[in-house]
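mind reviewing both lines:
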Amino acid sequence: MELQLTDTISGITIGNDPSHKTNLVPGQVIQGRVISINNIGHPIVETPLGSIVLETTPQMTIDGVIPIEIVSAEDSMLPAPSLSDTVSSLFTNRNWPALNEALELIQSSETVTNQQFSTLKVPKLDSQMAANILFFISALRGGDIRNWLGNQAGRRIQNNSPELYARLAEEYNQLGRSVRETNTGDWRTTLIPLFNGSEFEFFQMNFRSGLNDPNKKDEEDFARFIVDLELSKLGRIQLDGLISSKGKQFDLFVRSAIPFTKSMRRDLNKIFSECIEITGLSGNIIMQSALQFIDIPVPKMTSNYGSGVVV
C-alpha cells in the first residue's frame, strides 16, 4: 500500500462506514484515528480499511485524526498457487486424514516407546510448541515428509502401509509448494498441525518477509504473520503480528468476532508482556473486536484471481 498523508487534525469522530471499504477511487480521502504509538515512534492508525502502522514519526497524539488520500485504486491480480484437489480440501476442511492415519499407525507400533514418540517434533501445547511450528515450516519447504517426522517414523509408515505413505508424502510435498520461497514480500500460507493429545487439529498461518523499501539499503527488514483460529466459545480469532529489525519491535493485533472481557484483556496483556520480556523485544498489543478481519487468499486447486486495492 502507498499512503499519502494530507494533514493531521483532531476533534473529529470517525465512523465505520462500509462504503469506504469498496468502490475506492483516486483522490478519495478516508480518515484514520491514532490508537497507539509504538516504542519507536510509529503511529498505529485505525481506518475503515483496517489498522495500519505508519512507517513515519510525525508529531501525532493518541486519538488524533489523519486524512489519508487514495493514490491508486486499481485491481491487483494475483494468481493463487495451483494445488491438487486433495490438498485444496485440506485448507477448506482443516483436516488431514492421511496424517491422522499415519499418527495412529506410529502409536500402534509395538516397537515405538512413549519416549520415542515424544521426541517427534510435532507441534503440541507445550514449551516447545513455537520451536516445533518453526521446524515444521522449515521441513515443509524441503517437500520430504521424512524431514519432519524423521527417517525412522517414515520407514515405519512406508513398511506397514506403502499406499498411506505414498499419499501422505505426495500431499506433504504439495502442501510445501505453498510456503516455498517466492518473490520477496509475497504472502505464503500453510496449515499448521497441532496435536491435542489424541489427534491433529489445524490452524491457518500466513507469513511474509522482506524490506519495507528494497531500493533503500538502510531500510529495515520485517516479518509479518497472520494466524487464524476458530474457538468454540469466542468464534474467529486472528493474530496479526509485525516484527521489525530496527529497534527489535514486535506489534501484535488481536482481532475477535466477540468483544474480549476485562479479565481476558488482562490475561492477554500479561501473556504478551511476558513474551516481550523473555525475547528482549519491545512492542504493543492492540485488541480489536467487530472489525474487518484480514483475509489472505489460500492456495486453490486451479489458478484463480483475486482483486485488491492499492492506497
